[in-house]
Automatic annotation (TrEMBL), chain A:
Name the UniProt record assigns to this protein: Pescadillo homolog
Complex and partners: Component of the PeBoW complex, composed of BOP1, PES1 and WDR12. Within the PeBoW complex BOP1 interacts directly with PES1 and WDR12. The PeBoW complex also associates with the 66S pre-ribosome.
Purpose of the protein: Component of the PeBoW complex, which is required for maturation of 28S and 5.8S ribosomal RNAs and formation of the 60S ribosome.
MF GO annotations: ribonucleoprotein complex binding; RNA binding
PANTHER family reported in the protein's UniProt record: PESCADILLO - RELATED (PTHR12221), PESCADILLO HOMOLOG (PTHR12221:SF6)
Predominant localisation class: nucleus
Keywords: Nucleus, Ribosome biogenesis, rRNA processing
This protein's encoding gene: PES1
Record field: compositional bias (Basic and acidic residues): 512-526
InterPro entries membership: BRCT_dom, BRCT_dom_sf, PES
CDD domains: BRCT_pescadillo_like (cd17709)
UniProtKB/TrEMBL annotation, chain B:
Keyword check for Zinc: no
One annotated GO molecular function: 5S rRNA binding
Pfam families named among the record's database cross-references: Nop53 (PF07767)
Family: Belongs to the NOP53 family.
Protein name: Ribosome biogenesis protein NOP53
Organism: Gadus morhua (Atlantic cod)
Subcellular location: Nucleus, Nucleolus; Nucleus, Nucleoplasm
Major localisation: nucleus
Compositionally biased intervals (Basic and acidic residues): 373-394
Region (Disordered): 207-234, 373-396
């Protein structure tokens, strides 16, 4: 007799989980409502470790939730609202059916709605928690704000998303928090640092949607509902942290003329024009306490224990660099032609302190005209311009993005109209040692270091190639070098010995032999390493070999890439030469 | 005048009257109670009632009539309805008549609004305030001019029975109702009025006087509450955030951070100890069914005895065997040899033990090394396992019928890439991307769009009429 037999269903794993359908029944909600509730409350399905135990012996694929999660949902006031809404719909249908129009209006007037504020507070107890999770919210918000009013989702949701994203962009502009931008084929990736948190989001290109059929719009709309509420509260907090008025107001002092544009009526309805002006991103925001140009607050230095002067200096240097990056475009005046994505450029340029304007007919909020003589850069994306001003650069939009990523104003020549552009490198790729670094990046790095490269393209290329070759050789020859060193040492010893023999009679004043300490140390280390490898056990040796193999493979790959690149460059060069000959 | 009359009749009431018994005061001898006399007999009138009294009374009445007569002519004065008489009598009992009237007119302005055709009469009163309990209004036309004759108007001036019942009989004056002037909630009303005035000065109209706007209506309030209302406002939701995480600098200064770490360490040590203890306890544990009971103890005691009895039959054979064994006796030589061997063996063991001990001493280092290695290995394994578990968390799980399938990577080949941003053709849907990302992170289970299934096959038929036309 093996003791009391356990009841199967009462065992631990079985009681910890509940199937979706049972949970739904427990909450008395329809599937759609249940799904919505779970999304809003952040309750997600779980895969149990032992499905068979949980599923009463069956292996049928089911969706499971944790029992305690569902128990937690039972107390949610929103559940009540969902039920109310269900009843409301039923009543409304009935009223329609009976064509009681007064009843319909009365019901519609008392339509039950729910608020998500308490859920936000519950899910994100502190502001930083919320800020860490804002990436998703931003991506979703920007996505929804680009939707056309096709009835795939509520127009109101689109409007709210638009409002919140514009608020966000305005905040990023004012705080100059943008760090990186990347134009991909999907959309534009931005990265900003807000209150110490790195936040990345994706903004799709405009007018690029064909609505996919295999996406559940209801689910997405529910997520958006939650995210918009979250974003609103975050925006409020961020605005108040910068002393800005929330909801944002345009600074009436700075843009007095702008506010009273005559052609407002042509562009937008009066009710919408203010919002449009805000979303033009061309003017400053009003502050709660109108401050006189905030002085750059000197960073306070608190010497932290265990941090020496060097580290502190490094920190200071970094801070200075960041400051410089923030003022990258300060003093420059841009004009955006009509064929370039205005919003993205205006946002990005203003983030780094530039002035931006565009054609009046393109968008509201244009500060100056094309004819303005003080414009320094004219961004256009067409092969040629008919009428060109002599005192400004005509450049392609990529210059702006590349400059931001490289943290310096890149030479304009590579980005003139009609010129084949250099590749747009992703700022999110960070090469480690031994990785393949494309020559363009190397060049940019050189520029960052302040090494002026004023040469013809071909020469540069050649130089680059040479560099690469050297690198390759270095990598390959590393191992050989060690051996060579040893040999050299031996030779030296021998010669010394022979010298010693020959000079045994004479005593000359001894020279102080300069010991290259670093070199000696290195040698010693190498020797030790070799010995250690020799002494390794079989198992460890195997592991070591594996690691070394991985490293070598990496090097090989990098080499392959460089070789490929070289071949490509050669091919293009010959093509060019051929063309030149033909001409 | 009553006192005069009494003075005449009773000597004891006269001043200076001295009683024989000094303990009794002369005032107490005279009863204060007025003697009850029937007034419907002429004899009684002559005998007991002073003419002066009557005269005085009448004079008083006239005087009062004169004053109230004037009041009743003025339009402001309110006469009180007969049905509110009870209330009125109460007030009247407290304050003098004239005041009562004016007060009533102040306090109950509403009462007279419901008044119907009540006869207004001139006011008749008793002699004194205490006995005054009833207020009656006379005819407006007649009452003012006519001087009330006590004989002719007796019936009219007689108090109603109700009033008599409600009359306050006690001689103790009713405490003054100081609340009479006060309105209920007067302070609040006053404040409200003041506030309204202030708001009016600014130009704001209180909500109840404002015409109902759309915003106030139930429709718009619900719409404004909706989470997707584009004009909704936000507030500082994290405003009252309790600061749990303290400044690291502060912690370092107060030495709280290291203390925490130390505590954790100490805790870990304790846990380890406890584990070991538990281990030992587990090893020492015995089955509870094996616990000695009385029965088992008895069994144990009895064990050998019973068996002896049982084996009694075989006793003889066993004995013979034992005897046989005993019969083989060792010789002296043998014994010696055995002893020597024994000693030898003991020595051997001792030396072996000794060398073993020494060997172990020398082995100590290698043992230590092996121990360290083992510990390191377990540590490595632990970290590896932990990393695996962590990685497992972020793997897309099987959450429903369908497995998660990653989206294809969108790539444009070199020849597909165009030279400029203007001609760039966006690829892939961001929406789908987001959706897949949510699935990948196990936030939603992968699903398929519900398929529409036709239960019956559709038969395509070309109508004849249609064919004819074409």
């Amino acid at each position: 007799m093996g003791g009391v037999q356990k009841k199967k269903v009462c065992s631990n794993s079985a009681t910890n989980y509940i199937t979706r359908n049972r949970a739904r029944k427990k909450l008395q909600l329809s599937l759609a409502d249940f799904r919505r509730l779970c999304i809003l409350k952040g309750i997600y399905p779980h895969e149990p470790k032992h499905k068979k135990k949980v599923n009463r012996g069956s292996t049928a694929p089911r969706t499971f939730y944790l029992m305690k999660d569902i128990r937690f949902l039972l107390h949610e006031p929103i559940v009540g609202k969902f039920r109310e809404y269900k009843i409301f719909v039923r009543k409304l249908r009935k009223a329609y059916g009976k064509s009681e129009w007064s009843g319909v209006t009365r019901l519609k007037d008392n339509k039950p709605v729910y608020k998500l504020d308490h859920i936000i507070k519950e899910r994100y107890p502190t502001f930083i928690d919320a800020l860490r999770d804002v990436d998703d919210a931003l991506s979703m918000g920007f996505l929804f704000s680009t939707f056309a009013r096709t009835g795939k989702c509520h127009v109101q949701t689109i409007q709210l998303c638009r409002r919140l994203t514009v608020e966000w962009m305005n905040y990023v502009i004012t705080s100059r928090a943008l760090k990186k931008v990347f134009l991909s084929i999907k959309g534009i990736y931005y990265q900003a640092e807000v209150l110490g948190q790195t936040i990345t989001w994706l903004v799709p290109y405009q007018f690029s949607h064909d609505h996919p059929t295999d996406v559940d719009y209801r689910v997405m709309a529910t997520f958006t509902e939650m995210y918009t509420t979250l974003m609103g509260f975050i925006n409020f907090r961020l605005y108040s942290s910068l002393n800005l008025v929330y909801p944002p107001k345009l600074d009436s002092k700075a843009s007095g003329a702008l506010l009273k544009g005559e052609d407002d009526g042509d562009y937008a309805l009066d009710s919408e024009s203010y919002m449009e002006k805000l979303s033009a991103l061309s003017s400053c925001l009003a502050r709660v306490v109108s401050s006189v140009e905030e002085d750059e607050a000197q960073m306070d230095h608190f010497p932290v224990e265990g941090e020496d002067v060097e580290q502190m200096e490094a920190r200071e240097k970094e801070h200075k660099e960041q400051e410089a990056q923030r003022r990258l475009f300060e003093g420059l005046k841009f004009f955006v032609n009509r064929e370039v994505p205005r919003e993205s450029l205006a946002f990005v340029l203003r983030c780094f302190g530039a002035q931006v304007s565009w054609d009046k007919s393109l968008c509201i909020g244009a500060a100056y005209d094309v004819t303005d003589e003080t414009i320094t850069h004219h961004i256009a994306d067409r092969p040629n311009m008919e009428k060109q001003y002599i005192n400004r650069y005509y450049i392609q939009p990529q210059w702006v993005y590349d400059s931001i990523n490289s943290k310096i104003c890149l030479p304009v020549e590579d980005y003139f109209l009609g010129v084949t552009l250099p590749p747009h490198l992703s700022p999110f790729v960070e090469e480690k040692e031994g990785d393949y670094v494309p020559p363009e990046k190397l060049r940019i790095m050189a520029l960052q270091r302040g090494e002026a490269i004023v040469q013809d393209e071909d020469e540069e290329d050649d130089e680059d190639d040479d560099d690469e070759d050297e690198e390759e050789e270095e990598e390959e020859e590393e191992e050989e070098e060690e051996e060579k060193e040893d040999e050299q040492n031996l030779k030296k010893m021998e010669t010394q010995r022979s010298q010693g023999k020959s000079l045994s009679v004479k005593v000359t004043p001894g020279k102080v032999k300069k010991e290259d300490r670093g070199r000696l140390e290195q040698e010693e280390k190498a020797e030790e390493k070799r010995l250690a490898i020799m002494m390794m056990k079989k198992k460890e040796k195997y592991l070591y070999d594996k690691i070394m193999f991985g490293k070598k493979r990496k090097v090989r790959e990098a080499n392959k890439l460089t070789a490929k690149r070289k071949a490509h460059d050669d091919a293009s060069k010959t093509d060019k030469k051929k063309k030149a000959k033909k001409q | 005048m009553a006192p005069n009359r009494r003075v005449k009749r009773v000597a004891a009431s006269q001043p200076g009257f001295m009683t024989l018994n000094t303990s009794i005061k002369p005032e107490n001898l005279v009863s204060n109670r007025r003697k009850r006399i029937n007034k419907n007999k002429k004899k009684n009138w002559n005998k007991h009632i002073d003419v002066n009294d009557v005269e005085d009374f009448l004079e008083d009445v006239r005087l009062q009539e004169r004053t109230t007569g004037v009041a009743s002519t003025t339009p402001n004065t309110r006469a009180i309805m007969s049905n509110t008489r009870a209330i009125m009598s109460y007030t009247r009992a407290t304050i003098s008549t004239t005041r009562a009237i004016t007060l009533c007119s102040l306090c109950w302005p509403l009462l007279d609004s419901t008044r119907n055709n009540q006869q207004r009469r001139g006011l008749i009163s008793d002699k004194s305030d205490e006995s005054l309990f009833f207020l009656d209004a006379g005819d407006k036309k007649a009452g003012t001019q006519t001087v009330v004759e006590p004989t002719g108007r007796r019936k009219a001036s007689r108090p109603l029975k109700v009033d008599l019942i409600l009359k306050n009989n006690s001689l103790v004056p009713v405490p003054k109702d100081i609340l009479a002037y006060q309105l209920p909630n007067a302070k609040k009303l006053r404040n409200v009025a003041k506030k309204a005035e202030q708001l009016a000065a600014i130009g704001k109209v209180p909500k109840k006087h404002r015409p109902p706007t759309k915003v106030d209506g139930p429709t718009k309030t619900t719409a404004a509450d909706a989470p997707n209302n584009p004009t909704r406002d936000f507030y500082d939701i994290w405003g009252q955030e309790t600061k749990e995480t303290r400044d690291p600098w502060y912690l370092r200064q107060t030495g709280k951070a290291p203390v925490k770490a130390l505590l954790l360490k100490a805790h870990e040590v304790e846990v380890k100890k406890e584990k070991e203890e538990n281990k030992i306890i587990k090893q020492l544990a015995y089955d509870k069914d094996d616990r000695a009971t009385e029965e088992s103890v008895f069994q144990e005691q009895v064990e050998g005895l019973e068996e002896e009895d049982y084996d009694a039959n075989d006793f003889n054979s066993a004995c013979t065997l034992g005897i046989l064994n005993l019969v083989e006796k060792k010789t002296e030589k043998q014994r010696k040899k055995e002893r020597v061997q024994k000693i030898k063996e003991q020595r051997r063991l001792a030396s072996r033990y000794k060398t073993g001990q020494q060997q172990q001493l020398f082995q100590l280092r290698s043992i230590k090394v092996s121990l360290r290695q083992r510990e390191q290995r377990t540590k490595e394994r632990q970290t590896q396992r932990r990393a695996n578990q962590e990685a497992e968390k972020y793997r897309p799980r099987r959450l429903g019928k369908l497995k998660f399938t990653a989206q294809d990577l969108e790539v444009q080949l070199t020849n597909e890439l165009t030279g400029s941003l203007r001609t760039l053709k966006p690829e892939g849907s961001v929406l789908k991307d987001r959706f897949k990302s949510l699935q990948k992170r196990n936030l939603i289970e992968p699903r398929e769009r519900a398929k529409f299934k036709r239960r019956l096959k559709i038969k395509y038929v070309e109508k004849r009429s249609f064919r004819e036309i074409t």
